[in-house]
Amino acid sequence: MMAEPFLSLNGIAKSYPGVVALDGISLAVSGGEVIGLVGENGAGKSTLMKVLGGVIQPSAGTIILDGQELQRLDVASAIEAGISFVHQELNLFENLDVTANILIGREPLCGGLLHLVDRRKSRALVEPLLSLIGADFKPETLVSSMSIAQRQMLEIAKALSQRARLVIMDEPTSSLTLAETDRLMEVIAGLKRDGVAVIFISHRLSELAQCADRVVVLRDGRMVGELQKQEISHASMIKLMIGRELKSLYTPPAQPFGDIVFEIDKVETTAYPGRPVSLSVRRGEILGLAGLIGSGRTEIARTACCIDPLIGGSVRVNGQPLRLETPSDAIDQGIFLVPEDRKRFGLLLDLSIAENIALPSLVDYAAYGLVKVTEIFALAERQRARLDIKASSIATEVGTLSGGNQQKVVLGKWLSRDPRVLICDEPTRGIDVGAKQEIYAMLRRLADSGVAIIMISSDMEEVIGISDRIAVMHEGQISGLLDRDEFSEHNVLLLAVGGTLH
Amino acid sequence: MSKKDIGLLILILVVGTVVAIINPLFLSPINLANTANLVGLFGIFAIGQAFVIITGGIELSVGSVIALIGVLFVDLMVNFEMAWPLALVLMIVLGVVIGLAHGLLITRLHLQPFIVTLCGLLIYRGAARFYTEDATAGFGFGLSFPTLEWLTTNRFFGVPHSFIAMTVIAACMWVVLHRSVFGRHLFAVGKNEEAARYSGIATGKVIVSAYVICGVLTAISAIFFAMYTRSISPSSHGNFYELYAIAAAVLGGCSLRGGEGSIIGVVLGAVLLQVLQNLVNLLGIPSSLNFAVTGSVILIGVLADTQFSSYRERKLATKGATPRQPQAP
């Protein structure tokens, strides 16, 4: 039986100049329940969570905490009330160890006025927490040596150390492998058993179906629906989120594939030396590259585009081996990479859309080394129209755009240079459903115009729904190739964990 | 001109007016020409420093390079009787070599710019002192190089040639920084080196080029300094000049994190620094307070700038909100 709600929000609203971020949200949270929170980017999920964390003050509505009616929470009272966050972008000190991260700001002291850290007591505090969540790291492990999944576990341990009653997880699985996700699901089940409430924000609908007691759907700052456990299904959630039925993802190619354009022949990467990888893509084909995180997919992409050095094998375009020494060698051949982390590698966030789009093509839009500004603006306008980048103008700073529009800017950079081979590494990570559809359609249009596309994706729905063929990687090697009639979650998973199909 | 540049110009005009009111000598042609000469000398290497700062680096060896190149230049002409154009070219080549060495150490061997150029600061100063055995290098009595002297220290209708040289260099560098492909690449590398690399920009070459530009401009200004002072004592010539360059660049809107800056700003920064030096002299402030005055004004200027821009942001935010306010009950 569910306990009485200890926290409830009534009619919470928040408006910013020109935008209503939240509009009359009511939500009750009881101990031991797992609430899924879904919605497109910009639906108000993060704002709602910031209200709970006391970072943002609502403009209307009340918060009832343990029977006390409050107008707002501040950060200190949110922590006091046991509300903690596991952030999407983790807030850990990489240079410190696990113990220091958990106890930061609350270190047990000894030595009187000297204020030394009591190491023994620290360890005694941390060890039980780690065993509670079944952590596979030690109190003295350095965070910089931990995987993303382990860091997330650490964030959860940190939340528990603050006697959390409500743990809010913002897209915790977006960079986890499947096995790691399963572990996280177990930890969530454990929290639930101990009477801790969990709010779980995710774009991955299947995980919600697995762990949530109910799913709350936000759209445009409003609560548009709530699904009880038995009602949770992909179709019902997506319908509420975007207000329409999601069509089947796959669009078949307009014409049969052409010849092989791009070949990776026995390529060895610095991450997996001695494990050669061979792949080939035909004109007009979208090759999905599936596998667990860390299986070497990104490294192959980076090596093929000469971001990382090629330590063995060769890369061929139309049968001709390429001399790859710097990234510009690949770019000159029309081989482009849409990187995994667009904020770090894809964009200059403080610069305008126009400057970002023009960056790789500046030399082509210059005379005597001087940039032709009007031509660059024209180029950027063309790409904005082509990709439907939503911004007030091409002079808008890229950092202010939503994830989907940022990704379109990255695509626009390369589309303005006539790609021959486009390698997209997680092209829709952190992007809302609507923009995902647009990017899928854009990839198909590109393929139909004769571009060979390699799409690295950890999203099963995406990789099965978009690809014409799937190559699956396992620990640095290709463990199998699947044609469309062999596509299934089961087959991809089996190959990803190193199994064989036949 | 950006808002920042205009703000700096206003600051210069305000300080200038105040000084002129207190001491009208400030506006005398001779004083203006002297100040312009110093602006020219300091402005040339400050522009070089700005290129390095825009990459997110720093060049600390400027003062020592000015001393080293100064003593070598004088020595080549006086003791080796080398023709001055050849000596000039050699010194510029030396500037290129120093810039190249710093740039390659930073990009190829991944050393931090601060450390590389700090070592440069120590090494070149030591080399200059060792080379002259700590003695002052200068042009002997009666020695003269009419063309070179005309080029570097003469005046054109009262405007010192050093100032004209700085203006020409600033104009060229303005085109390079604000209109050329290289300039765009430089800003991109300074903002996000990784993203620039993924876009096919040869980031290493861009960074090395910035250090080479700095080396060349420093060498040019070193020659102007040598001709201006005519005698160089290697232990003190050019001391702290790197800090003037950094101050001018930062006053002029360069961010030490890289990716920001403008040539006009740097030139105005150099002007402000020299006006401040002049102010100390003209207002009879003890010259021992020189650095303290300069430091205080820079601090106030930077403080005012950040306060003003955050005020502007707040104002913009409330302005955006006004149309919605009537809806509130």
From TrEMBL, chain B:
Q: Which domain of life is it from?
A: Bacteria
What name does UniProt use for this protein? ABC transporter permease
Record's bilayer topology term: Multi-pass membrane protein
Note the InterPro entries from the entry.
ABC_transp_permease
Q: Which UniProt keywords apply?
A: Cell membrane, Membrane, Transmembrane, Transmembrane helix
- Species this chain originates from: Mesorhizobium marinum
- Any Pfam family from its record, for instance, is BPD_transp_2
Q: What is its main location?
A: membrane
**Parts of the chain that traverse the membrane:** 7-26, 60-78, 84-106, 113-131, 156-177, 206-228, 289-306
> Do the record's keywords include Transmembrane helix?
yes
Q: Where in the cell is it found?
A: Cell membrane
Keyword Protein biosynthesis part of the UniProt annotation: no
Q: What is the lineage of its organism?
A: Bacteria, Pseudomonadati, Pseudomonadota, Alphaproteobacteria, Hyphomicrobiales
